[in-house]
Each structure stands twice: as structure tokens, then as C-alpha cells.
From TrEMBL, chain A:
Region feature (Disordered): 103-153
Biased composition (Basic and acidic residues): 130-144
A Pfam family this chain is assigned to: Molybdop_Fe4S4
Domain of life: Bacteria
Species name: Actinoallomurus bryophytorum
PANTHER family linked: HYDROGENASE SUBUNIT, PHOTOSYSTEM I IRON-SULFUR CENTER-RELATED
Taxonomic lineage from the root: Bacteria, Bacillati, Actinomycetota, Actinomycetes, Streptosporangiales
Protein name: NAD-dependent formate dehydrogenase iron-sulfur protein
Domain 4Fe-4S ferredoxin-type: 161-180, 206-234
4Fe-4S Mo/W bis-MGD-type domain mapped to chain residues: 248-304
MF GO annotations: 4 iron, 4 sulfur cluster binding; metal ion binding; oxidoreductase activity
TrEMBL record, chain B:
Superkingdom of the organism of origin: Bacteria
Location of the Molybdopterin oxidoreductase domain: 12-435
PANTHER family (alphabetical): NADH-QUINONE OXIDOREDUCTASE SUBUNIT G (PTHR43105:SF10), RESPIRATORY NITRATE REDUCTASE (PTHR43105)
Keywords associated with the record: Iron, Iron-sulfur, Metal-binding
GO biological process: respiratory electron transport chain
Annotated SUPFAM superfamilies: ADC-like (SSF50692), Formate dehydrogenase/DMSO reductase, domains 1-3 (SSF53706)
Cellular component GO terms held in the UniProt record: membrane
One annotated GO molecular function: NADH dehydrogenase activity
Coiled-coil region: none
Name of the protein in question: NAD-dependent formate dehydrogenase catalytic subunit
Species lineage: Bacteria, Bacillati, Actinomycetota, Actinomycetes, Streptosporangiales
CDD domains (alphabetical): MopB_CT_Fdh-Nap-like (cd00508)
One Pfam family recorded for the sequence: Molydop_binding
Length: 306, 643
């Protein structure tokens, strides 16, 4: 009765990846077998949503392509990651996203587009930015004219001093909704509104954040794969042209605000904290923080009266 | 309307300051350190080492706390060292140590996720410890039941299956009634009680008067709800009892903690995986400060100063003789200042003029010191009273070391920023002062200090920096480098062999002692204090960022009380206690019961809540009764003919 339950030992599973033998613990995903596969909606701390399909691979005997991020390996599985079908599918995902969304701050997007030969511009020049996406009801959206590519572009939402929502970069992966909802934060400040091409992430009644249920934990920023959600500090520095990740150091330390002991990774450029994240494999936080740990760093750098 | 609480944030200190002709003026480091050291020397020569007091910092690293207590014991030669855990969780440490021999929470965050029942007692973790609460939420999603025991229906209570809204200060009657019900229903764990505890008979007798009905009368919690909690807790396969300041900021706080421990002893919910007792600590290293010996009665690793072998071992390592008696705790030190027995103080990173109950009194006492040195990152209200102010680095991001969290996990702190201007690392400053006082101290790196800790404290021995890095922190105890111990404490109490079991855990016989500050016609409302999600303690740090959630200080009233007083949201009212008066705007919170009002202590420069609170302290741990003040709320005079 005093023992510690140990996880039962896991059996190993043999598969092949592009003809090479790979052995993995039972329960692993194809993604575990194929590191380096592009992913967007997959999150290492979240339940797979299978929303973006950029990670698809071919599995011998399967009729359709399968998402690597969620499908578990089975004994004897023959996985192919670089067939024409796979390449074509990934290209199409990148083209559709690239024509409608601003992927300029999505890590990996440029390299993948190059690798798969994606040409989003073949759908025509981007259409006008919308000022009413947040208000659209089903059916209100006008059909595109075909001369330009419809986009999700709209002005960035800068409605508080901590973080910015720039939904023209949003690929609707739902990760922020899951992180805000029942998978981590349980605040439920955001959800998906609208349908089809008009679907977007929004607060209740599209209220500005300060009038919503948001508690500014920033756990949505932590999981966002595109930079649609970002620290205000990052947003401002990008606007000024001073954001430079090559000059940033990341140092993991402990939050100063309470005894829980959350691990904070401070992103520092020129001796200024410009953003805070948390290691996803950390046993205390699993990548989550509260408003103080995430945003409460400014007091140490109030160095002169500005 | 201008926002009342929008004051300019504190600026970092970048140069040492010394006092001349009553005024603080910038100085060189050499001058400031000389002055600081001279003042200490002068006072020790005149009045002896016990005229010195060290306030160490619960937000600094373990390494800094270790050096601060070593400075106190070796360079000065007294045990007068303490930190602000006195104002929050000292009773938890005292209570747990009295029952089990060591003062840490007995479980781990992952065990919270794996438990079946969680009792959150006097803890609004959803706001005060949000990431701890995420582990609770995981448990809820896995089917665990939650009971919230709190005078306020907090955001934590909103996640609970049951909320027991007890009257402030009636925790012991409630716990005793739960115990009685468990015993009468035959639900106590007889095996565990027999093996792992002492004093059951006497305890059982002492709770006998606390029938469900009499407890209902005193606590205000319906008998049925008390019964339900008793049965659920006793029947649960695994259960966790978690508490925060609702338990500890009372004049009889250590008894409160013992009352909760009694319940775990009765049911065997301790010493097993996923069953345990968890005080949630308020500051990032309040656990570590005590673990490192920055307390008046223990050396690093909870080793008792009264134990001659312990003193001898530390004394040999440090080439000194350690005083064979307990030093003064923070509360005693303040009293000793008032009486002129303590004449020199070294305050590192603490702000007692604003964090202590009855703030005016604290200011007056500090004012009587002959020599006050304050080392901080800001010119706080306390620092403005100092003779010498030493600008320090911010421990969590400008220095290297370790800190210990609420689950006893020692984790690495790493330097990410260079401190501003001439600000220097706390440990450097301590060593400079030690050298001026005749001790040639030198540490090249925080790791050297840590290795000294490991050589003296068995429970830290196995935690090398490289292992801490590799394992993302290690929980104490960790006796050797080739093992990690179970994530929970006190499994020994379950051993069948009496020798292996060691000292059994004693039940505590406890009497109800209502809050000292009585309600009467003049002061009919019960004021209790607490934290809000985005703010922290006296607000020195959290005022530095622009939180969209912040609404400044309010006096929070129930809708019933607001109506009765004829006040409306946003209206400024006068709040008075037997000690002081403040004005604050009204906020109406339906989660409050009539008769209960709430304030925080986050905005002392605008509304000095602690000028209202009472300095009735717990005799064992010295914690003040912040949670129970008697107040009166009155509308400010309104213009004639106004509304
Ligand atoms: S805001 Fe970011 S995380 Fe949320 S759906 Fe869009 S891309 Fe995904
Ligand atoms: S991030 Fe929040 S919960 Fe975590 S240690 Fe900091 S204040 Fe506490
Ligand atoms: S990453 Fe696998 S479906 Fe999106």
C-alpha cells in the first residue's frame, strides 16, 4: 500500500520508414518514427487535432494518406514519407494556407514551401483585408470573384498591453482553443466562431480581451505555431524592425512570484527580456504559466525613468 | 476619473546610498560597505552579537540564504536570523515538523493528479497558485472530487463539488467535528492509527464535544456538509489536503495546521502515494530559506540547533562556535527593536514596513535602530529608512543558484540578465561585508556554496548541479547521488517493524480560540485579506507590468452589506479598525457572505490595508492574524442634497 505505481514496461514495435527498419515503444506515433516531418497543428502538450494535414504520410495498404502526428505505429507498418502523393498533398496544404494566410512568422513554412515547390501565388494576388470578419454570420460572406485569392487578412487586434492577436496569420489549428479550454487552462475565453472560410478564433461576442474571460496566462501564445498570437513586446519590435532572434539568448530560470516553482525560459535580446516561455517537458508547468510568470518581468528592467 | 492606483512603477536601484545629515545620498561601494560594516561592528562591540538581526529573503536563492545565515552565525555570532516565511507559512513548517519531524509538504504535484479526493482548505489556488491548480484540474478531469473550505466562495470553490463556507477563524471546530464524525462512523484507519500515531485516545476524547450540530453553530457550515466531507475524506482511497494562508495567518495558526494534520493521521492519508498534506507556499523560495537554515532554530536541512552534535559539525566546518540556543524570530526581533535590545539590522530583500501587520508600529520600531542596512533591488519604504542602502541583483534572473518549491523540488536558477548600473549580487555583497568584519570569505560560483550545503545537509547531499539539470530538479530528501527517493514523505509510518517506523506522529489536542479582534457594534464586519491573480504581496514587483486585470484596491462587500450600508460600486468609503482607517472604493462581490468583507495588500502606497490588520501573533510560529480583522465601513460624508 505504500508503493509507487510504476508504469508497466512497454513492448517494442517494429516498422519501416522509407525502407529502413525502426523500432519504437508501443503507443508511439508515426511522427515519433519520422522526426523532421513538418507539423503545424500538432502540439507536444496537446491531444492531436488533425486539423492541418501537413504531416501526412503514406502507409502501405491504407487507402488514404494518414496524419503522422496522431496515428500510432502498428507492428509491421510500412511508412513512406516522400512519395509523390505525400509531396503533392503537403504542397497543396502549403499553397492553400499560403494564399489565404500570412505565414511570414510561421517557423518552417518558408523551408517547407521551397522543399515541396508550393506556389500560393498561382491563386492570384491576395484579396483585400476584411474589417468585418469578426462580425460575419454564416452566409454573410461574399463569394470570391476568382481574380484574387480570398484571405483571412484583417487588422491585428491590439487591445491590451500584454499580447497581440494578429489573425491574418491564423491557420485555425485550434491549439490555442485547446490550451485555453479543457486541456490546460480551463478558462474558455476563446473558441471558434463562424463556419467554413469565415471560421475564426474569437472571444465570446468578439469582445476585446479586457472585456472577455481572458486571464492573460499566455498559454495560447505558448502553443501557437504561426505567431498569430505574440507578446506585445515582440509585435512592437517586429514593427520597429528590431526583433532579431539571432541575437537572443534563452535562459531557463524560476518564476519570482509564488512557491509553485514554475520554470520560465527568458528570451533576452540586448539585456532586455522580450518574451517568456516555459519548457514543455517540465514536470511543474508542462509549458503553462500564469499572468505573473508570463508577463510580470518588467519590474527588473525599469532601470531608468523613460 | 483618474485611476487611484496608477502610480509610477519602482525604478531599480543602481548605486549605493548612505545617510548623511538625515538624507540618503549616492556613495561609492567602498564607502557604503565600510559604513555598513562599521555600524555592525560598533553595535556588536557595544551590546553583544544578539543586538544584531538578519532578515533574509524568501525570494533569493538557497545559496544566498545559506550565506546570509552563515554570516549571522559566523561573522556576527548570533542565531537572530529569519525571513518573511514568518508572515505566511511558518506555522505550516512548525506544525508539520512537530508531527513528522520535517517541515515540508508531504506529496508532489503529479500525485495531486492521481488522487481521488482533494480538500482545498483556506486556499484560493486558482488565483494564488494558478499552475498548482492546473494539476488539480487534471485530477478533476480524471474524476477526483473536490471540497473547498473557505469563508469566501472563491474561483477555487467554483471548481469544487462542495463549498463549505465557514466563519473566519473556526477551522479548528470544523476539523474537530470532521474528526469526531469519522471516529463515530468507525471510518478511521485503525491500522495506521495503531502503527503510525500516538495520542489517539486523548484526541478522540477532546473532539467529543464537537458534534455536527455544535460545529454548525460555531462554523456556520451545515451539519450535513460537514458529515459529507468527513465521510468522503475517510472513505477515499487516496486523498490530498491542501492549504494556504487561510489556515496560517491566524493567531493560533500552528494549531490550525495541526488540526488538518490530525485528519490525515486519523485516516492514513499521509505517507502513501497520492495521499498527503500540502501547504502551498507563497513565495518562490520560502521553502528553501527555511531549508537553508535562515531561521532562528535550525541549521541547513532542518537540523536542530539544540542538538550538540549538529552544532559541532557545522562549527567545525565553519571554524566557529554556534550559540547553543534559538535566536529571535522576525516577530521577536521587531519587538526587541521596540525595547532597544536589538540595535542593528540587516534586511535583505524584505519590506517589513509594508508587509507586516500594524504597519505604523513596525515603522516606529525600525526607527529606533542605531544601524539599519537594507539590501534590495528597489528603494522600498523600508529602504528609505536605512542608514545604508545596497543595490542588489534580482535573484531569479540576475544570479545563479537554486530555489526550492512547494513540492520540495530544488531547481536551478540561472542568470539571464546583467544587473543594472552598479547593482551587485547579494552573495558578493555579503562576502565583502564578511571580509571587512574579519572573515576572508570567497566563493567563485554559486555551485561552490551549494556543494558546501550538500556537505552539511544530508537531505541535499545527492543534488549536484549536474543532476539538478538532468532531472529538471530533485525533491528533498535526496541522500545520495545514485538514487532518487519516493516523491512523497513519511512512508516509514506504515512500516510493520517498529524500529523502521521511527517516531510515531502525535495527534494534537486543540482548543477553539476565536479571532482576537472581536466583532462588536462599533466594528461589526469581519475583514479578511488575500491575493488577486495578477498581483503580488506589496505590489513592488507586480506594479511593474500593465495588467489588464488590475483594478486597484477595493473594499469588497457582499451585495447585502452594500445595500444595508447604502453604498454603490465605485463609491469611496471609509474602512476603520481599532488601529487605523483607510478609504477605498467599493466593489460588490456576490461570492461574499453578509458580514464578510475582503481586501488585498497589493497597493499599500494607495490603501494601506495593513494599517487595519491586527498584530495578534501565533505564539509558536509568530505569524500575524491577517485573516481576521474587525472593521466598520462607512460612506464618506456626502454633500448636503447630494445622493
Ligand atoms: S491563433 Fe495560433 S494557435 Fe490559435 S488557431 Fe490560430 S494559429 Fe492556431
Ligand atoms: S507562473 Fe504563476 S503559478 Fe507559476 S510560479 Fe509564477 S506566479 Fe506561481
Ligand atoms: S500536424 Fe498532423 S494534422 Fe496537423
Amino acid at each position: 500500500m505504500t508503493g509507487v505505481p510504476l508504469a508497466p514496461p512497454r513492448r517494442l514495435v517494429d516498422v519501416t520508414v522509407d525502407g529502413e527498419a525502426v523500432r519504437l515503444p508501443e503507443g508511439s506515433t508515426i511522427l515519433d518514427a519520422c522526426p523532421g516531418t513538418p507539423t503545424l497543428c500538432y502540439g507536444d502538450t496537446l491531444t492531436p487535432k488533425n486539423a492541418c494535414r501537413i504531416c501526412v504520410v503514406e502507409v502501405k495498404g491504407a487507402r488514404t494518406l494518414v496524419p503522422a502526428c496522431s496515428r500510432r505505429v502498428e507492428p509491421g507498418m510500412e511508412i513512406m514519407t516522400d512519395t509523390e502523393r505525400v509531396r503533392h498533398s503537403r504542397r497543396l496544404v502549403l499553397e492553400l494556407l499560403g494564399s489565404s494566410t500570412d505565414l511570414s512568422t510561421t517557423p518552417g513554412a518558408a523551408e517547407w514551401s521551397e522543399e515541396y515547390g508550393a506556389r500560393p501565388e498561382r491563386f492570384g494576388p491576395p484579396g483585400d483585408a476584411s474589417t468585418d470578419r469578426d462580425a460575419r454570420h454564416p452566409g454573410a460572406h461574399e463569394s470570391p470573384d476568382g481574380a484574387s485569392a480570398a484571405t483571412v487578412a484583417q487588422p491585428a487586434k491590439v487591445d491590451n498591453d500584454l499580447y497581440v492577436r494578429d489573425y491574418e496569420k491564423c491557420i485555425l489549428c485550434y491549439k490555442c482553443v485547446d490550451a485555453c479550454g479543457e486541456q490546460w487552462q480551463n478558462t474558455f475565453a476563446i473558441g471558434v466562431a463562424g463556419r467554413g472560410f469565415d471560421a475564426r478564433i474569437s472571444t465570446e461576442h468578439a469582445a476585446p480581451l479586457p472585456d472577455s474571460a481572458c486571464v492573460y496566462c499566455g498559454n495560447c501564445i505558448e502553443v501557437c505555431p504561426t505567431g498569430a498570437l505574440s507578446f506585445k513586446s515582440e509585435y512592437d519590435m517586429r514593427a520597429e524592425g528590431t526583433w532579431d532572434e539571432s541575437r537572443q539568448d534563452q535562459t531557463t530560470t524560476i518564476c519570482t512570484y509564488c512557491g509553485v516553482g514554475c520554470n520560465l525560459t527568458l528570451h533576452v535580446q540586448d539585456n532586455e527580456i522580450v518574451k517568456v516561455s516555459s519548457p514543455h517537458d517540465n514536470p511543474v508547468t508542462h509549458g503553462n504559466l500564469c499572468v505573473k510568470g508570463r508577463f510580470g518581468f518588467q519590474h527588473v528592467q525599469n532601470r531608468t525613468r523613460g | 476619473m483618474a485611476k487611484k492606483n496608477a502610480r509610477a512603477p519602482y525604478l531599480r536601484l543602481t548605486r549605493p546610498l548612505v545617510r548623511d545629515a538625515g538624507e540618503l545620498r549616492p556613495a561609492t561601494w567602498a564607502e557604503a560597505l565600510d559604513r555598513a560594516a562599521d555600524g555592525f561592528r560598533r553595535n556588536v562591540e557595544r551590546h553583544g552579537p544578539d543586538a544584531f538581526g538578519m532578515f533574509s529573503c524568501a525570494r533569493a536563492t538557497n545559496e544566498m540564504n545559506f550565506v546570509a545565515q552563515k554570516f549571522t552565525r559566523v561573522v556576527i555570532g548570533t542565531n537572530n536570523v529569519d525571513s518573511c516565511n514568518r508572515t505566511c507559512h511558518a506555522p505550516s513548517v512548525a506544525g508539520l515538523a512537530a508531527a513528522f519531524g520535517s517541515g515540508g509538504g508531504t506529496s508532489s504535484y503529479t500525485e495531486i493528479e492521481d488522487t481521488d479526493l482533494i480538500v482545498m482548505w483556506g486556499s484560493s489556488a486558482r488565483e494564488a497558485h494558478p499552475i498548482f491548480f492546473q494539476h488539480v484540474l487534471k485530477a478533476i478531469r480524471r474524476g477526483a472530487r473536490v471540497f473547498a473550505v473557505d469563508p469566501r466562495r472563491t474561483s477555487t470553490a467554483r471548481w469544487a463539488d462542495r463549498w463549505l463556507g465557514l466563519n473566519v477563524g473556526t477551522d479548528i471546530p470544523l476539523a474537530n467535528a470532521i474528526a469526531r464524525e469519522i471516529i463515530h462512523a468507525g471510518l478511521h484507519n485503525a491500522t495506521f492509527v495503531e502503527r503510525g500515531t500516538t495520542g489517539f485516545e486523548e484526541f478522540a476524547e477532546s473532539v467529543e464535544p464537537w458534534t455536527l450540530e455544535s460545529a454548525e453553530q460555531v462554523t456556520g457550515v451545515p451539519a450535513g456538509a460537514i458529515r459529507e466531507l468527513a465521510h468522503a475524506y475517510a472513505r477515499a482511497e487516496r486523498a490530498q489536503l491542501c492549504w494556504t494562508l487561510g489556515i496560517t495567518e491566524h493567531h493560533n495558526a500552528t494549531d490550525n495546521v495541526r488540526a488538518l494534520i490530525n485528519l490525515a493521521l486519523l485516516t492514513g492519508h499521509v505517507g502513501r502515494y497520492a495521499s498527503g498534506l500540502n501547504p502551498l507556499r507563497g513565495q518562490n523560495n520560502v521553502q528553501g530559506g527555511g531549508d537553508m537554515g535562515a531561521i532562528p532554530d535550525r541549521l541547513a536541512g532542518f537540523q536542530d540547533i539544540l542538538d550538540a552534535r549538529v552544532r559541532e559539525r557545522f562549527g567545525r566546518a565553519w571554524g566557529t562556535e554556534i550559540q547553543p540556543r534559538y535566536g529571535l524570530n522576525l516577530t521577536d526581533m521587531l519587538a526587541a527593536m521596540g525595547e532597544g535590545r536589538l540595535t542593528a539590522a540587516y534586511i535583505i530583500g524584505e519590506n517589513p514596513t509594508q508587509s507586516e501587520a500594524d504597519a505604523e508600529h513596525t515603522v516606529e520600531r525600525l526607527g529606533r535602530l542605531d544601524h539599519l542596512v537594507v539590501q534590495d533591488i528597489f528603494l522600498t519604504k523600508t529602504a528609505r529608512m536605512a542608514d545604508v542602502v545596497l543595490p542588489a541583483s534580482a535573484a531569479w534572473c540576475e544570479s545563479d543558484g537554486t530555489m526550492t518549491n512547494s513540492e520540495r523540488r530544488v531547481q536551478r536558477v540561472r542568470k539571464a540578465l546583467a544587473p543594472p548600473g552598479e547593482a551587485r549580487d547579494d552573495i558578493d555583497i555579503l562576502c565583502e561585508l564578511a571580509r571587512r568584519l574579519g572573515h576572508d570569505w570567497h566563493y567563485d560560483a554559486a555551485e561552490d556554496i551549494w556543494d558546501e550545503v550538500r556537505s552539511l545537509s544530508p537531505i541535499h547531499a545527492g543534488m549536484s548541479y549536474s543532476r539538478l539539470e538532468e532531472l529538471q530538479g530533485i525533491q528533498w530528501p535526496c541522500y545520495s547521488e545514485d538514487r532518487v527517493e519516493p516523491s512523497f514523505l513519511h512512508s516509514r509510518l506504515w512500516e510493520t517493524d517498529a524500529e523502521a517506523r521511527g517516531r510515531p506522529a502525535p495527534f494534537a489536542v486543540l482548543r477553539h480560540s476565536p479571532p482576537v479582534d472581536l466583532l462588536d457594534e462599533d466594528f461589526p464586519l469581519r475583514l479578511t485579506t488575500g491575493r488577486r491573480l495578477d498581483s503580488y504581496n506589496t505590489g513592488v514587483q507586480s506594479s511593474g507590468f500593465a495588467s489588464p486585470l488590475r483594478r486597484g484596491e477595493n473594499i469588497e462587500l457582499s451585495p447585502e452589506d452594500a445595500r444595508r450600508l447604502g453604498v454603490t460600486p465605485g463609491e469611496e468609503v471609509r474602512v476603520s479598525s481599532r488601529r487605523g482607517t483607510v478609504t477605498a472604493p467599493v466593489f460588490v462581490d456576490p461570492a461574499l457572505r453578509p458580514g464578510l468583507v475582503f481586501m488585498t495588500m497589493h497597493f499599500p502606497d494607495e490603501v494601506d490595508t495593513n494599517s487595519l490588520t491586527i498584530e495578534a501573533t501565533d505564539p509558536i510560529a509568530g505569524t500575524a492574524e491577517y485573516k481576521a480583522t474587525a472593521v466598520r465601513v462607512e460612506p464618506l460624508c456626502r454633500p448636503v442634497g447630494g445622493n
